[in-house]
Amino acid sequence: MSNPQDRPQETAVYTHGHHESVLRSHTWRTAANSAAYLLGALKPHMKILDIGCGPGTITADLAALVPEGHVTGVDHAPGVLDQARATAAERGLTNIDFAVADVHALDYPDDTFCVVHAHQVLQHVGDPVRALREIARVTKPGGWIAVRDGDYAAMTWYPASEGLDDWLELYRRVARANGGEPDAGRRLKSWALRAGLTDITATSSTWTYSTAEERQWWSGLWADRTLASAYAERATEGGHATARELRAVSDAWREWGKQEDGWFCVLHGEILCRKEARKDA
Questions:
Q1: I need a labelling partner for 276 at 20 to 30 A (CA). Which of 16, 58, 199, 243 fits?
Q2: What is the C-alpha to C-alpha distance for residues 121 and 166, in angstroms, rounded to an integer?
Q3: How high is the pLDDT of residue 188?
Q4: Against a cut of 0.85, is the pTM above it?
Q5: How many CB atoms lie within 10 A of CB 16?
């Protein structure tokens, strides 16, 4: 195990924060809609680390899928872990625990976990290649590294909206100013190769919002997030947008959500990597 003092700490700022409008999205996520590419590799006995677990809905699903194993959910933000613990308790899961952690400096020995999973994490970190090396360090030989990230530049919608064009341009600018990479999905395989991973399966999947209920939910959370979340504060404090410009973007989201023919697609890149077994094993 490497000395934590020799490993860098997180330098990027998490763009979204944990406002209710953000958690509205995060608590919707499940293993089925956000980690389907991993599920076929899971076995009942596995020990899993879920990095960036947030409110713990995916973490809890993973714990239910490994009843003879154990899942540890970690997040850089201590406050959200109370909600994650409550989620696990509500489901009666006993093979699960939570802790604060930095993906650049994980406080676990080498070769600890059968699976290390990170959903929507690498887009927000300062050094995703170093993070992947650290993820690989704590993964057992023959174990799985599973990473999924959105790709903002690849998001697409109908009908056209200048306000949503402004939203996308603004979000990408704020995220990069915070030290992250909003177009992470397309870069995952490249980052994995640079991290020294070899057995890599790169795939993609989407979230699509098209029904009236889906449009109302998706447009509403972004309309609220644009005005009231940490993202809104960072947009204005960083000089990227005025309060008036944020209001215009928020209004554009609500207007798009009213369109009967509205459709929005969120593309994600995925990598499922098998850690090379030791040659002397």
A1: 58
A2: 24
A3: 98
A4: yes
A5: 21
